[in-house]
Amino acid sequence: MSTLLPQSLLVAGAIAWGLGWLPLHHFASIGLVGMPLVLLVYGVLSLIAIPVLWRERNAWRPQRNGLLAIAVCGGGATAALVTALATGEVVRVMLLFYLAPVWGVLGGWLVLGERLTLLRIVALLLAMLGIAMTLGISNELIQPLSGSDWLALAAGLGFSLNNLATRAADGVPLASKTLAPFAGSALIAALLCPALDEYPPPLNVELSWQIGLMALGWLLSMAAVQYGVSHIEAGRAAVLVVFELVAAVLSSAWLGEQVIGIHEWGGAALVTFAALIASWPERPALTAIRSPSI
């Protein structure tokens, strides 16, 4: 089966995620951030998710543990990342979150027994170098981890575990895999809002349609990403998803009227090149390292 379509959808979904800072910036300007925002958006999506999950229960029941892992890891990753972005330094949070490709490649090797080829290692190293260049890593970033830093790390790990679970739960329908993290995020936010003493503001017509529009965008982008990670190896998916970072940084520079320097362009080029390497068909003769657990 050709991987062109899943790879294309995965990249498109990742880019859409990278542009997700635009609605987040808008909602932040009216004081809606963190868990209350997650509760509203994913609460709306749960109205779609729960009936679909119930209808497909016979299909996913044999792999219900995999679906539960998708809901917990995917939902937890979203909740952690949104909170980290709301409370921490955005550049620092993005950098720590984008250690996700490391977890994805290593997890695909250790958990799923995927081949850790020399080509994959080179792609991973190039992607990480591109991340460093794009973010403009400096000495100011090298400091003790704060609470938001740990949340960003947890979000990256949770996202990678979500991708691994999505790949492993190959018998679970795509709709269930796409919608389960929505229900997970809504449940986590519902539990954390009282604990943090943070609650959504009263809804009016304008805010309601904006929340609905954002929910639709996340639904479409999540469907594209879930389809992609369901049909290609986890290690390759982890590298391709880095397009989210490139889209976020470059769009922020353009729309924020900031000058895009050589390091941003160079980082974007490296990440793109790494993604192309990761998506290149591998030859059987290529030397590979096997997981010690196999």
What percent of the residues sit in helical stretches (DSSP H or I)? over 70%
State the order of secondary-structure elements, H for helix, E for strand.
HHHHHHHEHHHHHHHE
Kindly state the mean pLDDT as a whole number?
A: 78
- How many domains? The number is 1
The backbone outline, from C-alpha atoms, is globular
Physical arrangement of strands within the biggest beta sheet? 1-2
Structural class: mainly alpha
Report on the biggest sheet.
2 strands, antiparallel
Residue fraction in strands = under 5%
Helix count equals: 14
How many E strands?
Answer: 2
N-to-C span? 25 Å
Estimated radius of gyration: 19 Å
Which ranges are low-confidence, i.e. pLDDT below 50, for 5 or more consecutive residues? 284-294
Describe the 3D structure.
It is a single chain. With 294 residues, this protein is an all-alpha fold. The protein has one domain. Helices cover 75% and strands 1% of the residues. It contains 14 helices and two strands, in the order H-H-H-H-H-H-H-E-H-H-H-H-H-H-H-E. Strands 1-2 form a two-stranded antiparallel sheet. The longest helix is centred in the last third of the chain and has 27 residues, at 205-231. The protein is globular and about 50 Å long.
Summary, kept brief:
With 294 residues, the protein is mainly α. The protein is built from 14 helices and two strands; from the N terminus they run αααααααβαααααααβ.
